[in-house]
Write a structure and sequence with these properties.
heterodimer, A: 134 residues, alpha/beta, B: Yope Regulator, Chain: A, 9 helices, Atg12 conjugating enzyme activity (chain B), transferase (chain B), autophagy (chain B), Atg3/Atg10 (chain B), Ubiquitin-like-conjugating enzyme ATG10 (chain B)
Chain lengths: 134, 265
């Protein structure tokens, strides 16, 4: 697994657990909870992974594309987060793809996806929204 | 195999993505040959996992067929439909006892609209090719161990929460009851009218990164979870697109034929 450099931590926004839209202040938050030792940094690395979200087609591009996400977070939870972030209508479905063209199971943990498909220290996920029924 | 389906009521209009004829991946359509080849590659990995997919031939022809899988899943089923199958008597212990035995519920059957219980339900999934629309279509049916077919309501209740709200909001994935085009038996079908909508992004993205797509794998990974069908992650790593060239296609067919007990072509 590619080592996560601490210098990259600041470029990935922390994804809140309650799926609320993030505030700007959440960006570039240093891990203030842990003392700045290398061991703590490694522990912090293992709990979270970096995710890069890429919009496909006419889907709105998220202002923040890079997120640090808890490994145990499910695809379903991530999907809800993105949907709220993009303010999707209830009738709009969000599709998420890993490895360009595979839709992971909603219960799948992102940490597992990272292990299989992560590269350069991050997991790339493509997302796309369906049309709303008018 | 060209199972003609009742399609007059559909609004589905197949839309071609582009005029690019380099590969079938450029179009949101799926031709029948690519359907078979893609299924073949899918089935190879299924054989490796031993997770139950098989190729069912139609009319004894290797070239015509569909993918099939049967799986037992724990489901929430209502005791109500079971009771309504016979003339149900509210009064009388005899009637209640009879219903309890038939429904095989742990909790006592009391109110008409009472409890749901956990039970093992047999789900049978069929991946068919539609000649009319040139896309795969998912048919499925579900029944209890006693052989009672699940109602549409029960099937809906077991849809993953991720999809329940959307299913209620819009018919992109509407589950309808249809006659199986080949077996002539009642099945549920996942309405395919939005296939292009979720296939297009995947095909576009893969194309942009110069990668091929196994249409069946991509398609099933999207529609499967809606109806409780899981496609394990290892498929994404193991199953690739069918080779576009004829020579490579022949090789793939050979590999497919030798790999498992069942496979197309």
């Amino acid at each position: 697994m590619t080592k996560l450099h601490s210098s990259n931590a600041g470029t990935f926004a922390k994804m809140s657990d309650n799926a609320d839209s993030p505030t700007e202040s959440q960006k570039d938050d240093p891990p203030t909870q842990q003392p700045p030792t290398e061991d703590s940094g490694l522990v912090d690395e293992k709990k979270k992974i970096d995710v890069l979200l890429k919009a496909v087609g006419d889907t709105p591009i998220m202002k923040t594309k890079k997120w640090t996400v808890e490994r145990g977070r499910t695809v379903h939870s991530l999907s809800q987060f993105i949907s709220r972030f993009l303010k999707l209508e209830p009738s709009e479905q969000l599709f998420i793809y890993v490895n360009q063209s595979f839709a992971p199971s909603p219960d799948q943990e992102v940490g597992v996806l990272f292990e299989s498909f992560g590269s350069d220290g991050k997991l790339v996920l493509h997302y796309c929204k369906s049309q709303a029924w008018g | 195999m060209c199972g003609e389906m009742e399609n007059t009521e559909w609004n589905f209009r197949p839309v071609s993505m582009s005029d690019d004829t380099d590969s079938t991946a450029a179009s949101c359509y799926l031709d029948e040959k690519t359907f078979r080849l893609s299924c073949g590659l899918f089935l190879e990995h299924s054989s490796f996992l031993n997770d139950g997919w098989a190729w069912e031939e139609v009319n004894g022809s290797e070239k015509e067929g569909y993918m099939k899988k049967t799986v037992m899943v724990p489901c929430r089923i209502s005791s109500t439909p079971c009771q309504s199958n016979q003339s149900r008597l509210v009064d009388g212990d005899d009637a209640l006892l009879e219903e309890e035995q038939l429904c095989d519920q742990d909790e006592a059957v009391g109110e008409p609209t009472a409890a749901e219980g956990q039970a093992a339900v047999r789900y049978e999934y069929h991946v068919l090719y539609s000649c009319s629309y040139q896309i795969p279509v998912l048919y499925f049916r579900a029944s209890t161990l006693e052989g009672r077919s699940l109602s549409l309501e029960e099937v809906w209740n077991n849809v993953h929460p991720n999809y329940q709200q959307r299913l209620l909001q819009g018919p992109w994935d509407t589950i309808t009851q249809q006659e199986h085009p080949l077996l002539g038996q009642p099945f549920f079908m996942l309405h395919p009218c939005r296939t292009e909508e979720f296939m297009r992004p995947a095909l576009e993205t893969a194309r942009a990164e110069r990668k091929g797509v196994n249409y069946i794998l991509t398609w099933l990974s999207v529609v499967g979870p809606v109806v409780g069908l899981d496609v394990p992650l290892s498929y994404a790593l193991a199953v690739g697109p069918p080779a576009p060239k004829a020579e490579a296609t022949t090789a793939a067919s050979t590999a497919s034929a030798s790999a498992s007990t069942s496979g197309p072509d």
